Amino acid sequence: MIRIEGKDQVAIMKTLEHAENFGARFVYIETAKNNEALKQDQLSFFSTKAQANQHQFEQRAQDKYGEVLPVIAVKNHLDRRMDLENITRSPGAVVKDIYLDEKQQAFVERARVAITRETLAQELKDKGIKPDIKAFEQHLRNDEPSFVIRGYKKEDSQEKPYQITIAQNADRLFQIRAIEPVLQVEQSKRENIQSKQLGTVLRVDDAKEILHKLAEAKEQGHHFISFPARKEALSEKDITISKTPFEAWVKAAEQSTGKEQHLVKSIRVIEQELKPLVEQGQQKEVLMQKGERQKGQDLSR
């Protein structure tokens, strides 16, 4: 059990909210010894679970222990405990310590992944689709906001490939967003690319429009953007341009709601990630077009 003193509760909650606004999705909480109270410097934040797990491994090598948890889960848990404390506290009384059961939270997260795996696997089975189980489970363990996997369905005595898009909603529930035949996806030039910086899966065309908007913004002296976190179909219309990080965070705060948080990133960082991904997507489209032309020539002979 991790103890948080009454005088530190608001500061720790603000630290969690600040980290989440900057794109952190996981927190490593160093376990205190002898029931010592949690301090802010015992929190380390990461954008991916893989990074957080690597940090945990490195700390164990130094005989230090802690737990990796989703920022939003810790924040919501502490928020409920603080609300309960405020409701039950007598006027003028000292704020009591609250406790975070990190082991229970870790168990809840493992159960969440297990239940999701069974639920989605059954949903795909009902549709006659066999997913790439290894990739599917890896994405779930990494708790990724959205991802794409391959699956196969028997049609006309043949195993035909399908592309399955899965994403988390605002309540962190994994849902199947789309199931599309791979051939149909390629023919319609709707190749998906996954952006870790934007936290979503993008169509190549949408990514190109975003890059075009960012290039124009840079010419006008803008260097930062704000955008909704974990949105499943992000487009250039969802992006707000700003000249300074302060201006961007003000706009992000104004646009954020209880269900949808807005993040801030620099244009340079987004361009560095999207440009090579778009080029790869375009190369795949060219190869696909050549393949179609070759098939046409073969059929005409």
What do these coordinates show?
This protein has 301 residues and is of the alpha+beta class. The protein folds into 3 domains: 2-100, no CATH class; 105-188, no CATH class; 190-301, no CATH class. Helix content is 48%, strand content 24%. It has helices at residues 9-21, 49-61, 71-88, 102-126, 133-141, 182-187, 204-219, 245-255, 267-300, and strands at 2-4, 26-30, 43-46, 66-70, 98-100, 129-131, 146-155, 158-168, 174-181, 192-195, 200-203, 224-228, 240-242, 262-266. A 4-stranded antiparallel β-sheet has the order 6-7-8-9. Helix 1 (9-21) runs antiparallel to helix 3 (71-88). The longest helix is centred in the last third of the chain and has 34 residues, at 267-300. The protein is globular, with a radius of gyration of 23 Å. The protein starts with a strand and ends with a helix.
What percentage of the residues does DSSP assign to strands (E)? 15-25%
Strand tally, please? 14
Number of self-contained structural domains: 3
Large-scale geometry: globular
Distance between the termini: 74 Å
Q: The biggest beta sheet, please?
A: 4 strands, antiparallel
Q: What is the gyration radius calculated from CA atoms?
A: 23 Å
SSE pattern: EHEEHEHEHEHEEEHEEHEEHEH
Q: On the 0-100 scale, what is the average pLDDT?
A: 81
Counting H and I runs of at least 4 residues, what is the number of helices? 9
Secondary-structure map:
Elements (H helix, E strand, L loop, with lengths): L1 E3 L4 H13 L4 E5 L12 E4 L2 H13 L4 E5 H18 L9 E3 L1 H25 L2 E3 L1 H9 L4 E10 L2 E11 L5 E8 H6 L4 E4 L4 E4 H16 L4 E5 L11 E3 L2 H11 L6 E5 H34 L1
